[in-house]
Amino acid sequence: MGGKIRTSVVLDRELWKRFKEKVVSEQGLKQLSKAVEEAVEEELTEFIVLKEIEKSLTDIEVPPSITSIKPRVKTGAEEVVREMRSLRT
Q1: Rounded CA separation 16/19 (Å)
Q2: Number of domains making up the chain
Q3: pTM for this structure?
Q4: Which residue of 3, 20, 50, 71 is surrounded by the most CB atoms within 10 Å?
């Protein structure tokens, strides 16, 4: 997403202790910052996905307008729908 920053937060002591113990026992002390970052990302998943979609859409050329056209062949769904409805009963 971008560069790294150092920040400080105020947390419940017991909550932090349990989180830190869990991460250290499962991943090691060096992974603590990464675990916090992943927890934040999990909360912001929708934001992250939207940003990535926006980035990928900047390369796509969107037509200025959409015009409807008439089909070359006569079409109609009435008969098909009528037949499907008659099969239900």
Answers
A1: 5
A2: 1
A3: 0.49
A4: 20
